[in-house]
């Protein structure tokens, strides 16, 4: 009976989306174009170098080297092997869903148990500095100083989630695997790296080709989700469902003494972060702090669009999605609380200090992230098309041979 209800529900949702696309073709097309622009201008060119580099580092054993070195730090803090430090760093530098991608690769390489991989996924999917400083702080709020506050709350909250999730699955882990504590050793780390490289019999050209193909496959999947959720969010607004659901969010915001005018932008941000953050910045309200609290939450929550990408990446492994989803809510709460606590010392006090004595390089620092975004918008599509062409050539040659 449960499966019958599930089938009927999924069928109803799919049919409703199809009718909505027929009813609003122009608006759906515009939303699709918007999602495509985000993907091929920003997402693809910014994530591709990280994905390819990560594949190469795993193939050459460098990740194993890093894992041995950072084992004494990662194991006590987060109860994951030292290789988790690689996924954590890559996730923070390149943004979501890089953390999930790296965790899955490490799980496929059998460098993580299932429980360890689920812990790692829960705190390695973070927003990139480019998005926090460039898109949200400068692009939407026109205030580079805000980026320091948002980044601090986001990354500290992420670390707190990792510390909390270290206790996840401990009963299961004692049966499956006992953690091994080892001391810091560069010599042992190098030996493990050398052994890992020798175990991979692929020539350099094949490793490079696999890195490009695997990275592009993941990025094409990510692009599909971005476009789909861009259209889906727009359709929810057009048919009036967003307005109905936002009533419930108004009640939730009232409980936390936040302006009810942020209910609809907040709901939008739960589905798609970029559009939600933009709408929050444009919503008129007396409390600027309230806006920042809501933005911090949706950045930490990742949005259903990113969560769908993570779910798709995890689907080919035995890593469960539920711990990651729980961690997103926990991260949202931590980030919101930290925003309240750090708003004065990291934003108000800093703003007052810089008004008294503005350094000469201040304007240049504010424009740096904007310049990077403009650079991606100008040359990102060229890089995307060129890389896709190279991938087609590599795959064609492999099919011929």
UniProtKB/TrEMBL annotation:
All residue ranges annotated as the Nucleoside transporter/FeoB GTPase Gate domain in the record: 43-139
A Pfam family it matches: Gate
InterPro entries linked to this entry: Gate_dom (IPR011642), Spore_IM_YlbJ (IPR014226)
KW Transmembrane (keyword) present: yes
Keywords per UniProt: Membrane, Transmembrane, Transmembrane helix
Chain segments annotated as transmembrane: 46-70, 120-141, 147-168, 218-245, 251-276, 288-305, 325-347, 368-395
Protein name: Sporulation integral membrane protein YlbJ
């Amino acid at each position: 009976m449960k499966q019958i209800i599930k089938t009927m529900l999924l069928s109803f949702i799919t049919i409703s989306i199809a009718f909505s696309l027929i009813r609003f073709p122009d608006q759906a097309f515009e939303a699709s174009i918007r999602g495509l622009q985000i993907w091929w201008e920003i997402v693809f060119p910014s994530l591709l170098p990280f994905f390819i580099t990560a594949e190469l580092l795993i193939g050459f054993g460098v990740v194993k080297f890093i894992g041995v070195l950072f084992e004494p730090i990662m194991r006590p803090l987060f109860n994951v092997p030292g290789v988790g430090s690689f996924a954590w760093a890559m996730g923070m530098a390149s943004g979501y869903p890089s953390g999930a991608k790296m965790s899955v690769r490490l799980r496929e390489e059998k460098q993580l148990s299932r429980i360890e991989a689920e812990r790692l996924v829960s705190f390695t999917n973070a927003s990139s500095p480019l998005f926090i400083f460039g898109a949200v702080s400068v692009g939407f709020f026109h205030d580079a100083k805000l980026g320091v506050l948002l980044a601090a709350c986001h990354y500290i909250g992420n670390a707190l989630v990792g510390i909390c999730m270290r206790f996840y699955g401990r009963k299961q882990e004692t049966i499956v695997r006992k953690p091994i504590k080892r001391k810091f050793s560069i010599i042992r780390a190098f030996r493990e790296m050398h052994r890992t490289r020798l175990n991979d019999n692929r020539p350099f050209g094949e490793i490079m080709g696999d890195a490009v193909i695997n990275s592009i496959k993941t990025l094409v999947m990510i692009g599909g989700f971005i476009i789909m959720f861009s259209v889906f969010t727009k359709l929810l607004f057009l048919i009036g469902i967003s307005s109905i659901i936002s009533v419930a969010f108004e009640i939730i915001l009232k409980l936390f003494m936040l302006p009810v005018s942020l209910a609809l932008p907040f709901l939008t941000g739960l589905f798609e972060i970029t559009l939600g953050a933009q709408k929050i910045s444009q919503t008129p309200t007396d409390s600027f702090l309230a806006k920042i609290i809501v933005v911090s939450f949706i950045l930490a929550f990742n949005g259903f669009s990113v969560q769908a990408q993570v779910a798709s990446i995890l689907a080919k492994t035995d890593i469960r999605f539920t711990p990651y989803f729980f961690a997103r809510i926990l991260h949202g709460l931590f980030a919101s609380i930290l925003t309240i606590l750090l708003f004065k010392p990291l934003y108000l006090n800093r703003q007052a200090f810089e008004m008294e004595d503005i350094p000469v390089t201040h304007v240049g620092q504010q424009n740096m992230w904007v310049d990077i975004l403009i650079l991606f918008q100008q040359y990102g599509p060229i890089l995307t098309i060129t890389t896709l062409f190279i991938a087609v050539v590599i795959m064609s040659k492999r099919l011929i041979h």
